[in-house]
Structure prediction request, 523 residues.
Amino acid sequence: MPKTYPLQLQVNTEPPRVMHIDLNSCFATVEQQARPLLRGRPLGVTNRKTKNACVVAASIEAKALGVKVGMPFSEAKMLAPDLILVETDPPKYHYVYQKLVRIMKSYSPDVTMKSIDEGIINFVGTGNVNKRGLEQIGFEIKDRLRDEVGSWMRCNVGIAPNRFLAKTAAGLHKPDGLDIIDHTNLRSTLSGLKLTDLTGIASRNEARLNAAGIYSPLQFLDAPSDLLRKRVFKSVCGEDWCSRLRGWEVDDFESAVRTVGRQYVLDEWQPTEEVLRARLSYLCETTAMKLRYKGLAARGVILYLMYANGDHWYERKIFGQPFFSNSDVLAKASLLFNRRPREDWVRMMSISCYNLVPSNMGQVSLLEEINRETWLTEAIDEINNQYGEFTITFATSLPAKSLVKQKIPFGSTRYFELLCNSS
Amino acid sequence: MENVTNINKDVSVVAYYFRNTGERLRCFPKRIEWEGRRVDFTETGLRHPTKKGQRMVHVFDMTDGNADYRIEFDAERLTWTLISIADTSYAQNLSLATAS
Prediction:
């Protein structure tokens, strides 16, 4: 019998109106769809086809053999000797992403894509249009995905009163499930899960919960808001978890872009000054492109370097005027780069712009020099849009252009269009 | 690692098939010929559009049951290009034949 607390937030008894759609092993499934001979075989998708590359997506067959996302290829090959490795192909995934968005938007205008392969349809307020039950719509979406993209495509559908429970429901029966969580089966569903099965609870949060005597999702559900806020999470997050688990919506917000950047693990073990500057120049160019793509300008730059001995160094600087052009980002990053300690070989470099403000590229300045810079940047962007990215580029970036490829990002779809244009 | 042979040569599509995809009637290559070779496709994996600069290119991933073929149709130049053949002994033999 669960311990009850007075004045505890009640479970949301509204009918479920949120649907979470998740394409399983998205990149691997799309590759198997595109290449029929790969179907039913263990497949790994990687950003670079090298021995030490890591698997960014594994097919269901590979996962069954123990291959996990993020695992180095050499390790994955030991678990699955027949593993086939293919390189990512962003335009292919973009096409499937667009198809999925189109299907989802045909049911409700309130669609949020959480990443390349998962999205949420909020059916609240669409009762007059969608007369059918959400379960029926869920099966229809599965069928449409198979008809409009390909017969190998499968997706999980989760239906619940809020986003968190809908995502939990979508993960219950992979790879082709449809599950509903509401107030009637909330306890029985949570009783079959571990704490780390819940999205947002990894080993650290699990340890925090364990320290407060919470060992299962059911105990987590029964825990009072005060306990979670004051003892477990020590912040408002505790109250959020209390609402989230009871089916109330707390995740319906969009976070703003705070930094824009790129990072790169060096392709040479002992990179010379010239190689480092070539890679830096390329990273600055792509960072500036991202900035302009989002209509932003930055005032700050952070440069982060990791050395072969495991040490790292970073420096940040705020500048007086916002900047957005390739040459400005490179000049400012170079300023920091010249101050770096030269103690060991650089293994990884990262450049980020922060303190972002809306770009005023459209506004003519009183200073002719600024106007010339803006017009030149606009002209270069126009030519690159017409003839392909990096048609006009820094001469110093040229050696890096063929090596540092724009790769598929985890999570956000903010730069997906830009990525597809440049791939 | 997978066995991929890059071809990157213009090919002739000598037979097409059509499929109603719900929105419109779409056309897919059925048979291609290049340098005296002929391939009959048995299945379409995926067709997806992509851009090269402002040029629209349609990429077709096809199979003949023995190998997977990547073919591109340039919508501006109206040309078909066989980009690569992947994953079979056929591709291996072809690369040997091309090398000799």
Q: What stands out?
A: The longest helix of chain A spans residues 273-293.
